[in-house]
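[job 4471] stage=fold_predict status=RUNNING
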Amino acid sequence: MDTTTNNPNHPSAADQITDPVDAWVLAMRARGLAARTVTERARVIRQASQTAATGPDALAPADIERFLARASTPGTRYTYYSALRAWCRWLVRTGRRTDDPTEAVERPRMPVGRPRPISRAQLDRLLAMHLRPDTRTKILLAAYQGLRVHEIAKIRGEDIDADAGTLTVAGKGGRVDTLPLHPRIAAEAGCRPREGYWFPSPTRPGRPVTGKSVSKVIADALHRAGIQATAHQLRHAFATELLAAGVDSRVVQVLMRHSSLATTARYLGVSPEQQQAAIGTLR
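[job 4471] inference complete, writing structure tokens
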């Protein structure tokens, strides 16, 4: 029987890798983090190291502050800090450093983004266009199921259970959720294969298209319809319409697969009509 697994003196696979960033990548993959998260975090650390002209495991607080100051937007700055924070904590946890330099750096403010949903009239205009079947299905998955582009890209026939009326979604960070199936998506499923990817890659056999490809296809359709919007704004419209219809925010949180109710609350916009009605109640 192999006893090395429980031997504290036996080095882990990550410990045997010379490049510390590569070792961290392996550790993140072992935790099941999304491939996109792993790749982006490693890119940030290597970029910070290059900017500071020092080893990635030797970054000082001043190096981190200078790197954050170079970020073009508040959102980018916050993302960079989060990656650096996770990196430094891992270095300390694995004994590669005794201190965490990010503790001496003030956390950047998290930008408060406002959802920008397209309107119902715009969605109707978009769907009234002559669209390729794949394009229409991608739009419907975003607008009527609230899926992200990378979730749309990976949809398979096996994810649809027509009898139960459910859709299984592989989301961010490897999370898997089962959602109620919208009738329009159920109708699309009747024209799609029951097994395999709905949107197979034309260049990568056995693989689906990329999320970037889905985003571009939808964006191009929006542009042709004269709508200045992105694919993600269809997801915004999904949440906004549900909340405007009076659906409980906790239910919308589950359907959107938000980890925090505060994220869902961002979609609780107050229309000018609602404001006027409120003012009108004063006597």
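[job 4471] summary: Confidence is low (pLDDT under 50) at residues 1-6.
[job 4471] exit 0
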